[in-house]
Design goal:
Layout lengths: L10 E3 L2 E2 L5 H19 L15 H4 L5 H7 L10 E8 L4 E7 L4 E4 L2 E10 L9 E11 L8 E11 L13 E9 L9 H14 L36
Length: 241
Protein backbone atom coordinates (compact mmCIF):
# COMPACT_ATOMS: atom_id res chain seq x y z
CA UNK A 1 0.00 0.00 0.00
CA UNK A 2 1.48 3.29 -1.13
CA UNK A 3 1.63 6.19 1.32
CA UNK A 4 1.39 9.79 0.19
CA UNK A 5 4.62 11.58 1.05
CA UNK A 6 2.69 14.72 2.03
CA UNK A 7 1.09 12.81 4.91
CA UNK A 8 4.43 11.88 6.43
CA UNK A 9 5.40 13.74 9.57
CA UNK A 10 7.73 16.68 9.19
CA UNK A 11 10.32 15.05 11.39
CA UNK A 12 13.22 13.68 9.39
CA UNK A 13 15.40 12.69 12.28
CA UNK A 14 14.77 12.16 15.93
CA UNK A 15 14.98 15.48 17.77
CA UNK A 16 15.12 17.60 14.57
CA UNK A 17 11.97 19.09 12.98
CA UNK A 18 11.87 20.11 9.37
CA UNK A 19 11.38 23.90 9.08
CA UNK A 20 7.88 24.80 8.00
CA UNK A 21 7.60 26.65 4.71
CA UNK A 22 11.27 26.28 3.85
CA UNK A 23 12.84 28.64 1.30
CA UNK A 24 9.49 29.98 0.14
CA UNK A 25 8.83 31.66 3.47
CA UNK A 26 12.31 33.11 3.62
CA UNK A 27 11.92 34.46 0.09
CA UNK A 28 8.67 36.19 1.04
CA UNK A 29 10.28 37.73 4.10
CA UNK A 30 13.20 39.10 2.09
CA UNK A 31 10.82 40.45 -0.55
CA UNK A 32 8.80 42.28 2.12
CA UNK A 33 11.97 43.80 3.57
CA UNK A 34 13.08 45.01 0.13
CA UNK A 35 9.69 46.61 -0.52
CA UNK A 36 9.79 48.41 2.82
CA UNK A 37 13.29 49.69 2.09
CA UNK A 38 12.21 50.95 -1.32
CA UNK A 39 9.20 52.73 0.15
CA UNK A 40 11.40 54.36 2.77
CA UNK A 41 13.70 55.68 0.04
CA UNK A 42 10.82 57.15 -2.00
CA UNK A 43 10.07 59.86 0.52
CA UNK A 44 12.37 62.24 -1.43
CA UNK A 45 14.88 64.80 -0.29
CA UNK A 46 13.79 67.32 2.30
CA UNK A 47 12.70 70.69 0.97
CA UNK A 48 15.52 73.28 0.97
CA UNK A 49 15.41 75.78 3.75
CA UNK A 50 14.20 79.23 2.78
CA UNK A 51 16.97 81.81 2.92
CA UNK A 52 16.51 85.04 4.76
CA UNK A 53 16.81 87.99 2.35
CA UNK A 54 16.27 90.73 4.91
CA UNK A 55 19.14 93.15 5.35
CA UNK A 56 20.06 93.86 9.00
CA UNK A 57 19.04 97.34 10.14
CA UNK A 58 22.58 98.18 11.24
CA UNK A 59 23.86 97.57 7.72
CA UNK A 60 20.92 99.10 5.84
CA UNK A 61 21.22 102.37 7.75
CA UNK A 62 24.97 102.66 7.31
CA UNK A 63 26.18 105.50 5.08
CA UNK A 64 29.13 104.46 2.94
CA UNK A 65 31.41 106.87 1.17
CA UNK A 66 29.56 110.20 1.64
CA UNK A 67 32.44 112.11 0.05
CA UNK A 68 32.25 109.95 -3.06
CA UNK A 69 28.49 110.42 -3.27
CA UNK A 70 28.79 114.22 -3.03
CA UNK A 71 31.47 114.29 -5.73
CA UNK A 72 29.59 111.99 -8.08
CA UNK A 73 26.34 113.96 -7.78
CA UNK A 74 28.00 117.03 -9.35
CA UNK A 75 29.01 115.43 -12.66
CA UNK A 76 26.76 113.64 -15.12
CA UNK A 77 23.70 111.64 -14.13
CA UNK A 78 22.60 112.32 -10.53
CA UNK A 79 23.85 109.68 -8.14
CA UNK A 80 20.35 108.45 -7.25
CA UNK A 81 19.57 107.68 -10.92
CA UNK A 82 22.67 105.64 -11.72
CA UNK A 83 22.43 101.87 -12.05
CA UNK A 84 25.30 99.46 -11.35
CA UNK A 85 25.48 95.78 -12.22
CA UNK A 86 27.61 93.68 -9.85
CA UNK A 87 28.62 90.04 -10.16
CA UNK A 88 28.66 87.75 -7.09
CA UNK A 89 30.36 84.34 -6.98
CA UNK A 90 29.85 81.68 -4.31
CA UNK A 91 33.03 79.60 -4.42
CA UNK A 92 31.46 76.70 -2.49
CA UNK A 93 28.88 75.81 -5.15
CA UNK A 94 30.33 77.80 -8.09
CA UNK A 95 27.09 79.77 -8.51
CA UNK A 96 27.20 83.27 -10.03
CA UNK A 97 24.48 85.90 -9.68
CA UNK A 98 24.03 89.43 -11.02
CA UNK A 99 22.88 92.24 -8.74
CA UNK A 100 21.33 95.29 -10.44
CA UNK A 101 21.39 98.06 -7.83
CA UNK A 102 21.08 101.80 -7.39
CA UNK A 103 23.29 103.80 -5.02
CA UNK A 104 22.16 103.39 -1.43
CA UNK A 105 20.60 99.95 -1.96
CA UNK A 106 21.63 96.74 -0.17
CA UNK A 107 21.07 93.14 -1.27
CA UNK A 108 21.33 89.96 0.79
CA UNK A 109 22.15 86.48 -0.53
CA UNK A 110 22.21 83.95 2.32
CA UNK A 111 24.83 85.17 4.76
CA UNK A 112 26.20 87.80 2.34
CA UNK A 113 25.14 91.46 2.11
CA UNK A 114 26.35 93.78 -0.68
CA UNK A 115 25.84 97.53 -0.27
CA UNK A 116 26.36 100.01 -3.14
CA UNK A 117 27.31 103.59 -2.35
CA UNK A 118 27.89 105.00 -5.86
CA UNK A 119 29.19 104.11 -9.30
CA UNK A 120 31.15 106.15 -11.82
CA UNK A 121 32.78 105.94 -15.24
CA UNK A 122 35.23 108.06 -17.19
CA UNK A 123 34.10 110.78 -19.57
CA UNK A 124 33.45 109.56 -23.12
CA UNK A 125 36.47 111.41 -24.53
CA UNK A 126 38.89 110.24 -21.81
CA UNK A 127 41.16 107.26 -22.35
CA UNK A 128 41.55 104.62 -21.13
CA UNK A 129 37.89 104.02 -20.42
CA UNK A 130 37.01 102.72 -16.94
CA UNK A 131 33.93 101.95 -14.84
CA UNK A 132 33.90 101.52 -11.08
CA UNK A 133 31.68 101.29 -8.01
CA UNK A 134 32.15 101.97 -4.32
CA UNK A 135 30.98 98.77 -2.61
CA UNK A 136 30.80 97.39 0.93
CA UNK A 137 30.59 93.64 1.58
CA UNK A 138 29.35 92.07 4.84
CA UNK A 139 29.42 88.36 5.74
CA UNK A 140 27.69 86.63 8.66
CA UNK A 141 30.24 84.17 10.01
CA UNK A 142 32.23 82.96 13.01
CA UNK A 143 35.84 83.94 13.29
CA UNK A 144 36.39 81.21 15.88
CA UNK A 145 34.48 78.19 17.16
CA UNK A 146 33.80 79.94 20.45
CA UNK A 147 32.32 83.01 18.77
CA UNK A 148 28.66 83.39 17.87
CA UNK A 149 27.46 84.20 14.37
CA UNK A 150 27.89 87.92 13.69
CA UNK A 151 28.08 90.28 10.73
CA UNK A 152 31.59 91.34 9.76
CA UNK A 153 32.64 93.89 7.13
CA UNK A 154 35.08 92.11 4.82
CA UNK A 155 35.47 94.82 2.16
CA UNK A 156 34.90 98.55 1.69
CA UNK A 157 36.28 100.42 -1.31
CA UNK A 158 36.28 100.93 -5.07
CA UNK A 159 36.03 98.04 -7.51
CA UNK A 160 37.02 98.54 -11.16
CA UNK A 161 35.70 96.75 -14.23
CA UNK A 162 38.71 96.94 -16.56
CA UNK A 163 41.33 96.69 -13.82
CA UNK A 164 39.92 94.25 -11.23
CA UNK A 165 43.35 93.49 -9.78
CA UNK A 166 43.63 97.07 -8.48
CA UNK A 167 41.28 96.22 -5.60
CA UNK A 168 39.70 92.83 -4.91
CA UNK A 169 37.37 91.29 -2.34
CA UNK A 170 39.59 88.90 -0.37
CA UNK A 171 37.29 86.27 1.12
CA UNK A 172 37.50 82.45 1.04
CA UNK A 173 33.85 81.99 0.00
CA UNK A 174 32.58 85.08 -1.85
CA UNK A 175 33.84 87.26 -4.69
CA UNK A 176 32.25 90.51 -5.91
CA UNK A 177 33.15 92.52 -9.03
CA UNK A 178 31.79 95.36 -11.21
CA UNK A 179 30.18 94.61 -14.57
CA UNK A 180 28.80 98.03 -15.60
CA UNK A 181 27.71 101.49 -14.44
CA UNK A 182 24.83 103.04 -16.40
CA UNK A 183 25.13 106.85 -16.46
CA UNK A 184 25.66 109.68 -18.95
CA UNK A 185 27.31 113.09 -19.15
CA UNK A 186 26.15 116.42 -20.58
CA UNK A 187 27.31 116.85 -24.18
CA UNK A 188 28.19 113.19 -24.49
CA UNK A 189 26.72 113.10 -27.99
CA UNK A 190 29.17 115.76 -29.32
CA UNK A 191 32.38 115.45 -27.34
CA UNK A 192 35.25 117.97 -27.69
CA UNK A 193 37.39 115.32 -29.35
CA UNK A 194 34.77 114.73 -32.05
CA UNK A 195 34.39 118.47 -32.60
CA UNK A 196 38.16 118.85 -33.01
CA UNK A 197 38.25 115.98 -35.49
CA UNK A 198 35.46 117.54 -37.55
CA UNK A 199 37.26 120.91 -37.61
CA UNK A 200 40.50 119.28 -38.80
CA UNK A 201 38.64 117.43 -41.53
CA UNK A 202 37.06 120.64 -42.77
CA UNK A 203 40.43 122.41 -42.91
CA UNK A 204 42.03 119.56 -44.81
CA UNK A 205 39.28 119.59 -47.44
CA UNK A 206 39.49 123.36 -47.84
CA UNK A 207 36.04 123.97 -46.54
CA UNK A 208 37.47 125.80 -43.55
CA UNK A 209 38.35 128.91 -45.60
CA UNK A 210 36.30 132.03 -45.11
CA UNK A 211 33.47 132.15 -47.60
CA UNK A 212 34.01 134.43 -50.54
CA UNK A 213 31.55 137.30 -50.94
CA UNK A 214 28.86 136.65 -53.43
CA UNK A 215 29.36 138.29 -56.78
CA UNK A 216 27.31 141.44 -57.19
CA UNK A 217 24.67 141.24 -59.87
CA UNK A 218 25.88 142.50 -63.21
CA UNK A 219 24.74 146.00 -64.19
CA UNK A 220 22.42 145.91 -67.15
CA UNK A 221 23.83 147.56 -70.27
CA UNK A 222 22.68 151.13 -70.80
CA UNK A 223 20.65 151.74 -73.94
CA UNK A 224 22.82 152.72 -76.94
CA UNK A 225 23.04 156.44 -77.76
CA UNK A 226 20.98 157.76 -80.64
CA UNK A 227 22.95 157.97 -83.91
CA UNK A 228 24.40 161.41 -84.59
CA UNK A 229 22.58 163.29 -87.36
CA UNK A 230 24.27 163.13 -90.75
CA UNK A 231 26.06 166.27 -91.89
CA UNK A 232 24.05 168.24 -94.48
CA UNK A 233 25.25 167.82 -98.05
CA UNK A 234 26.63 171.02 -99.71
CA UNK A 235 24.29 172.73 -102.14
CA UNK A 236 24.97 172.28 -105.83
CA UNK A 237 26.96 175.12 -107.36
CA UNK A 238 24.99 177.23 -109.90
CA UNK A 239 25.60 176.26 -113.46
CA UNK A 240 27.96 178.49 -115.44
CA UNK A 241 26.26 181.05 -117.73
Amino acid sequence: MAVDARLLPAITKPGRRKPEGGPVVRLRVWTALLVLSALAGCKGEPAPETQDTGVPDAIAGMQAGPAQVARGAQIGTPNKDRVATLGVLNKRNNLTQNLVMKPGESRRIGNLVVKLSTCEKTLPWEHPQEEGAFVQVFVEERRSTAEKLAWHKVFSGWLFKNNPAANVVEHPVYDVWVKSCAMSFPGEEASPQDAASDSSARKASGSGKSPEPAASPSVSASPSAAPAPAAPEPADAPAAQ
